């Protein structure tokens, strides 16, 4: 049986914290599909196509990782991909309540879908796409937090 998991998110842009989760999750399954959410509540800095391209470049060495965009419900994307697992990262207690609510709702809608949480590596526990964008907007050095291609893309945006 092919074990597929999806890792949905905004990835605006992808950070080393996301990549850490991707690396660990991809070792557990046959295929990990990163789902870039096109219909997020707040307008993203990078377009959907840009976010997909940046992730593809960052994961190009990981053979069982695919990148796609999707809109609509995550559970429907999971169904489309035949995925039984949904991957999310937990950074701090503040993530927990929100993530638990979503995981339980998704499980209620699709009883075959289980959410797997990866606790963040300590070195990235403070890291978020928003913080990276803020640093980049003030011309700070983002190289500890993102890959080279993302750093270059951020420099072009600001
Ligand atoms: P969303 O808007 O869906 O929260 P994000 O791109 O912000 O999208 O995050 C996608 C997933 O990655 C979430 O589960 C989030 O908790 C996780 N994540 C974000 N940053 C980190 C990090 N530094 N370490 C581990 N997981 C993270």
Would you kindly provide a written description of the structure presented here, covering whatever features stand out?
- This protein has a single domain, classed as HUPs (Rossmann fold, 3-Layer(aba) Sandwich), CATH 3.40.50.620.
- It starts with a strand and ends with a helix.
- Strand 2, helix 2 (48-58) and strand 3 (65-70) form a beta-alpha-beta unit.
- The mean pLDDT is 96.
- The longest helix has 17 residues, at 93-109.
- It has helices at 16-26, 48-58, 74-80, 93-109, 129-137, 148-157; strands at residues 4-9, 31-37, 65-70, 85-90, 114-119.
- With 158 residues, the protein is an alpha/beta fold.
- Adenosine-5'-diphosphate binds at residues 9-11, 15, 17-18, 21, 88-89, 91, 95, 120, 124, 127-129.
Topology readout:
Blueprint: E1 4-9, H1 16-26, E2 31-37, H2 48-58, E3 65-70, H3 74-80, E4 85-90, H4 93-109, E5 114-119, H5 129-137, H6 148-157
Parallel strand pairs: 1-2, 1-4, 2-3, 4-5
The protein binds adenosine-5'-diphosphate.
């Amino acid at each position: 049986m092919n074990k597929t998991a999806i890792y949905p998110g905004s990835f605006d842009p992808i950070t080393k914290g996301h990549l850490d989760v991707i690396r660990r999750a991809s070792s557990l399954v046959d295929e990990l599909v990163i789902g870039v959410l096109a219909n997020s509540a707040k307008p993203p800095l990078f377009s959907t196509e840009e976010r997909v391209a940046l992730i593809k470049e960052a994961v190009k060495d990981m053979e069982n990782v695919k990148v796609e965009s999707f809109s609509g419900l995550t559970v429907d994307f999971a169904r489309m991909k035949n995925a039984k697992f949904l991957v999310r990262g937990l950074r701090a207690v503040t993530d927990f309540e929100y993530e638990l609510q979503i995981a339980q709702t998704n499980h209620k809608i699709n009883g075959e879908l289980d959410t797997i949480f990866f606790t963040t590596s300590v070195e990235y526990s403070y890291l978020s796409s928003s913080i990276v964008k803020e640093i980049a907007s003030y011309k700070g050095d983002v190289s500890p937090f993102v890959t080279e291609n993302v750093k270059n893309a951020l420099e072009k945006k600001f």
